[in-house]
Amino acid sequence: MAKVAPSPRDWTRANQGGPPMFIVLGASGNTGKVVAETLLAQKKKVRVVLRDAAKGQAWKEAGADVSIADVEDGAALKGAFSGAEGAYVLLPPNFSSSQVRVDNNRRASAIAAAVEAAGVPHVVMLSSVGAQQADGTGPVLGLRDAEATFTRAHAAVTFVRAAYFMENWGGALYAVAQGVLPTFLLADQAIPMVATRDIGTAVARLLAEGGSGKRVIELAGPREYSPRDVAAALARIVGKPIAVQQAPEEAMTTALVGAGMNAEWARLFQELTHGLNAGIVVWKGGHPLWRGETDVQTVLSTLIGK
Predict the structure, then answer these.
(1) 249: which residues sit within 8 A by CB, 6+ positions away?
(2) Looking at the domain assignment, is residue 1 inside a domain?
(3) Can you give the pTM of this predicted structure?
């Protein structure tokens, strides 16, 4: 009988020695930090991949291995992914870029090539609600491209299409002292939102469970929220009324550029906001919907320091 070649997963287990290793890209960020901490708390073997070596010591003290690599450095990434049972990957935004989609595609290709070269059996990629749409979603188009890139890879891939981050409201909290919540979203339209801590917890679970083939998980918080719901939660926290101050979405690019954002990112965020308001940035359906436990008031309390 002909000898059957081992699967990538069997090869990884046979060659790494000891318990399975899980790789976390972006461990300095909100989601990656939770992924790594959750797996370490479960006594899993974790390697965090960082750009800044100065941040490595704290992770070593927490029990993680540390690799230093940039997301565009294919050779360094291959080394970081070596011996992995599973890996969490994401595309950290480069807000200085004026060619956002081009830069994202280059990064996604570098990460996917490193995953394949290292023989990682299972990858969990952070994506977004609306990633199935071909246009009208702003920066989410880069995640659509990344999903396509990883779909062509040999590894099993789980795409976590996360809802609007609850933490995004942090940028509007400067106005709470004046009793208002500024937004370009429709004041009374509820949309899916999720806490980054719930993303991290879900990703850790998916990595620990392993995977086969390509699949999509839709991830939201316990319920949908409108900006008026967010304002009501803020009012309960600060003990005074908070009014929604809805601005026209057409004014968003000018406002963001005036605040220091480059024109390309500002344009993309306006397109994303229109997509949310118009019901374009939604899930396709037909995939499992997971719901986190963290409500928006809990996240806002943390952001506002109460």
Answers:
(1) 184, 270, 273, 274, 277
(2) no
(3) 0.92
